[in-house]
Write a structure and sequence with these properties.
about 375 residues; alpha/beta; 12 helices
């Protein structure tokens, strides 16, 4: 079976939750005997990731302008044409913005699966027209796709209530159980000590609320722990520039975008993971923190309400005072090597569930 994948910036080593999702999922699907072609956006291809394949997944680079208002829609239009050209059995479109092209793909005779990763129109960075396009993408994607996958119960309810689509398939984001490392060369280069820093990770966009975290943490005026933010902006904005300046003023450590051994080391030695977001789908960064047995503190938005967490792990979203109070409480009694049940978030199981939907679409079954 030939699967074309779009809606992602690309893989490997490209920043983003959808990108991490695809980088983990599709090599497993390819190893199961599927012919997978993942279509990447040309503006994210560098000397470090320029390749024709990745772990059995074919990679095709197609033009995309590096302009956030046009990038996804133009690239997805071209990706749909390419999927038709290679006679893909299924085109799998990730995220609601690119899903605006679902009717076009159906008109070309393609069978379409979409994965709804979250209501992106809630992100602060988008203006009126962009929000309208994202809402249209959600509506057309959910209404016209042959099969709909959602990554959380919250999104499943959105799909059901807004569009009366009762057959959406819930397949969680996944996480790999890491091999934690004892080396400290990387964290030492920042002057960090093991179990003496708080960690957060993600793109430098407003809904991550990293500025709120910096201000709340700095307000504690404690000397024992440091704050580390792993990530960067994919498009430099006024917010990302201000965030970097704020971090510098408060002696917060910014690692930039890191992967592999460096990310492993910085997670392995963190004391507490904090996620202050006002918007998420099902945050892979949180699942990664849990896989490293880190104690966590997260905003109380619906997407973060995992059954594996306790009430003490949440603070009121957007409240600097509550965040500061909960940080103080956590730092007074951090749980080292905390255990979580992550059986529901294993990539091999997620791949099997996804492939069952592909088979159902081609063979006419209901799927898993």
């Amino acid at each position: 079976m030939k699967i074309a994948v779009t809606g992602t910036r690309g893989i490997p080593n490209i920043l983003g939750g959808v990108e991490t999702h695809c980088e983990e999922l599709y090599p497993i699907i390819a190893s199961m005997g599927y012919e997978v072609t993942l279509i990447r956006r040309s503006c994210y291809i560098t000397a470090n990731n320029k390749t024709d394949s990745y772990k059995g997944v074919n990679l095709k680079d197609i033009y995309a302008p590096r302009k956030k208002s046009l990038e996804a829609i133009i690239h997805t239009f071209l990706a749909v044409l390419y999927a038709k050209k290679i006679k893909a059995d299924i085109i799998h479109i990730h995220a609601i913005g690119p899903s605006i092209m679902v009717p076009f793909a159906r008109l070309l005779g393609l069978k379409v699966v979409i994965t709804h990763h979250g209501p992106d129109y809630d992100r602060k960075k988008w203006g009126y027209l962009a929000k309208f396009a994202l809402k249209t993408g959600e509506k057309w994607g959910v209404k016209y796709a042959n099969k709909v996958i959602v990554i959380s119960e919250v999104i499943k309810e959105i799909v059901k209530k807004k569009y009366n689509r009762n057959d959406a398939h819930l397949i969680f984001n996944g996480v790999n159980i890491p091999s934690k490392i004892n080396t400290t060369d990387y964290i030492s280069s920042f002057g960090l000590k093991s179990k003496k820093y708080l960690l957060t990770a993600g793109r430098f966009v407003e809904e991550k609320n990293f500025d709120l975290l910096i201000k709340s943490f700095s307000g504690l005026k404690q000397k024992e722990y440091q704050l580390v933010i792993a990530g960067d902006a994919d498009h430099e904005t006024e917010y990302s520039i201000k965030l970097k300046k704020l971090a510098q003023e408060h002696h917060v450590i910014l690692t930039g975008f890191i992967k592999g051994a460096q990310l492993n080391e910085i997670f392995s030695h963190a004391a507490l993971f904090v996620l202050p977001s006002s918007h998420e789908g099902l945050p892979i960064a949180l699942l990664e923190a849990m896989s490293y047995n880190l104690d966590v503190l997260v905003s109380d938005i619906p997407a973060n309400k995992l059954q594996e967490l306790d009430s003490s792990d949440y603070f009121i979203s957007g409240s600097p005072d509550d965040l500061q109070n909960k940080l103080k409480s956590k730092l007074s009694k951090i749980q080292i090597n905390r255990n979580y049940d992550l059986d529901s978030y294993q990539w091999p199981s997620i791949a099997v569930q996804t492939c069952s939907i592909y088979k159902a679409l081609i063979c006419g079954d209901k799927g898993y």
